[in-house]
Amino acid sequence: MKNSSAIGWEHFLASCREVTSLSISGESIEHALGDLFGSLDCQDPMLLKLFSTMDDEPCVDYRTLLPIDEEGCRVMLILLQAKIKIGLHNHPKQTGYVYCIDGRVDIQAYDECSNNGLEAVLEKAYSLSLGPSEHAFLSPETANVHSLYGEEKSFLIDVFVPYLQPEDEYLCRRYQDPYCQREDGKWLARIIPKS
Ligand SMILES: [Fe+2]
Prior knowledge:
Elements: H1 9-21, H2 26-39, H3 45-56, E1 62-69, E2 74-80, E3 85-90, E4 95-102, E5 105-115, E6 119-130, E7 135-138, E8 145-150, E9 154-161, E10 180-181, E11 187-190
Antiparallel strand pairs: 1-2, 2-9, 3-8, 4-7, 4-9, 5-6, 5-8, 6-11, 10-11
Helix pairs in contact: 1-2
Fe (ii) ion (FE2) binds next to loops.
């Protein structure tokens, strides 16, 4: 049965702008975005149309769409095909909320403890199998490095705050999967050189 207090896609986007403009972080913004996603009508025709348009076009790995890409907030729709992996990468100085609309996605998340430019020391933050109505959260301090693997064809909504500043783009990194676990439990992962 449809939640009578559910909000439509346009209302959701406007509320995202409001929430992400507040000076809140950490658990506060996770809870605020959680409330917002909890009230989203996932059957809203506009939202379904956006996803179906993405799904209509040939896509062998993943496809993204940016309904909001502004200074304070980025909202991204993701269609991730089954058996496709988005390898380890970070989101420098950003907070992110990854919400599963449909499908199932495996997420491996790490904190970066250090890096020497060639390889990084990573500490496991969590390992999640994300299904419909479930979310993963990352902040500048924790779980900022993650990978996504489509256990099934999946439809996701990401909210990132703030916008990635141009002066921080040099901090963006991609990593190979960790190749070694140290005695202290932390992992070593090679950083993929920028092309
Ligand atoms: Fe990401």
